[in-house]
Amino acid sequence: MNDLTIELRQDNGKHLYEQIYLHIRREIRKGKLLQGEKLPSTRSLAEFLQVSRSTVELAYDQLLSEGYIEAKPYKGYFVCPAEGLLDMGEGMPAEDGWKSWKSVEMEKKEGYGTYGMYGSGKAYDYDFSPNTIDMSAFPYATWKKITKGILVDANSEIFLSGSPKGDFILRETIARYLHTSRGVNCRPEQIIIGAGNDYLLMLLEKILGRHVKIAMENPTYRRAYRIFDSFAYRISPIAMDGSGMSAKGLRESEADVAYVMPSHQYPTGIVMPIGRRMELLKWAGEKEGRYLIEDDYDSEFRFKGKPVPSLQASDREGKVIYIGTFSKSIAPAIRIGYMVLPPPLLKIYEEKCSFYSTTVSRIDQRILNEFIGKGYFERHLNRMRRIYREKHDMVLNGLKGMEKDFAVSGENAGLHILLQNRRGRSEENLVGAAAEAGVRVYGLSEFCVGEMAPQWKRDAVVLGYASLGKEQIAEGMERLESVWGR
User: Fold this and answer.
1) C-alpha angle 8-14-16 in degrees, rounded to nearest 5
2) Which of 13, 38, 316, 333 is the most buried (most CB within 10 A)?
């Protein structure tokens, strides 16, 4: 197939990349694009539609993440097998906002829960997913301007392979940013840049070795769990209390490494207090080879009080491996993450892993460096904080009629909240009632690995609000009150 005939409109309320995504998804679901059929390259489709290449890439990335298409190295993009997709014809999902509709099998693998139909077979009208962001305010013009400027001014050096760790200029910029915003103490030499957390965790497995026992908070980020499980790591789920990972449970696990999210735990939203942080650092310092992996996935979004310093900021013995990404703060398609290695592990990396090439294009690195270094990133963050704060407040306002029914945790930070029912209604009952009203919510059990501690009973649901519009949040919360407030 050479081109796709897509009618793009500036006046329909949807961004261009979303229109492209929705059109291709619709064609696949209706069977007009068949299994194995090749899609146009991002460059050729961008030229045909007279849009930027990044616009097409955003649409393709969403289709990739949802399993509609697959990328074959050196060959291009192809339509995935249609078997198992939810609906190939009528009753397609509503197209208001980004909705991640996948096959049931894919969602089980991803660990994000199961999307689907409810009641009479109609699709969800409102999806309170905790895994999405708002792309409506993405600074496309700025990104395009920076990209154009770099390509115009670029010399041959930018097209060479570069440092395996990533361009020094970007690592230097990230080091300054992390120190200013998160209190992270590191040199640019300690930073490794990679295409998302998946690659960085896989690289970390080469550094730490294969015979590692890792402790994880429970509930936790299941994608990380799946990655560690693929390494054949021995995984020990540690029950959480009100302060995060239990230090007592960590000691009893006999783990070598602990994976934690201290600034805003996913999905409970707990901010780990300094006392507990010191306990974990003490545990790590008691034995050689012990480390803490700090996943600081959404620390940029805090709506009340001062920013919470990173765990790494309190580390004095080189025991914290700090990992972050720009997927939440800029866009998932950016695919640029970073890992800060403590000196002992940096030495191992340089001895055993420095031959691995960086997985991020140097052009993309240079664009991001300009975006951060010239202040565009900070302005974008300030704008997104205002947008997310308004949405966050709308969700809380929508819960005012249900204050006696639910305890709220994880508020004032991040892009989701946790609701625990006080009336004894089960998670299954809450999720099912919401589904009957056309609203998708996420049960806490979807994030669990093993048995939960008593305080995290299976009567809790997670609400994410980032990708929904204000009207969608208001209507969705009204529907939840109508079925939960009875």
Assistant:
1) 45
2) 333
The predicted-structure confidence for 369-388, as pLDDT tens digits, reads as follows 999 999 999 999 999 999 99
Burial of residue 354, with CB atoms counted within 10 A of its CB: 0-12 exposed, 13-18 middle, 19 or more buried: exposed
Residue located via tokens 């070795």 = 209
Angle (nearest 5°) at CA 197 between 166 and 316: 75
Given the structure tokens 């790494």, which residue do they identify?
A: 312
SS3 259: strand
Pairing of strands 291-295, 257-260: parallel
pLDDT along the chain (486 residues), means of 10: 71 81 86 87 88 89 80 87 46 39 36 40 81 92 92 74 92 96 95 93 93 93 92 90 90 96 92 90 95 92 80 95 94 92 96 91 94 96 94 94 88 90 88 94 89 68 94 95 86
Q: State the amino acid at position 224 in one-letter form.
A: A
Q: How far apart are CA 59 and CA 25, in angstroms?
A: 10
Burial class (CB in 10 A: 0-12, 13-18, 19+), 1: exposed
Positive or negative, the CA dihedral 164, 364, 112, 75 is negative
Q: 235 with 225: CB under 8 angstroms?
A: yes
Residue ranges and CATH numbers for the domains of the chain are: 16-93 (1.10.10.10), 141-374 (3.40.640.10)
CA torsion sign for 372, 58, 55, 468 is: negative
Separation between Cα atoms, residue 35 and residue 28, nearest integer Å:
8
- 3-class secondary-structure state, position 254: coil
Element (H, E) at 44: helix 42-49
CA 157 to chain centre: 32
Look at the chain and count its residues. Answer: 486
Closest CA to 227 of 293, 128, 174, 315: 293
d(CA 65, CA 116): 16
- Helix pair angle (140-153, 362-373), 10° resolution: 120
Which residues does residue 409 pair with via DSSP β-bridges, in sequence order? 418
Q: Is the pTM of this model over 0.85?
A: no
b/e map 359-391, b = 16+ CB within 10 Å: bbebebbbbbbbbbeeebbeebeeebeeebeeb
Q: What is residue 93's predicted lDDT score, i.e. its pLDDT?
A: 39
The residue written with tokens 């979004």 in the block is 301
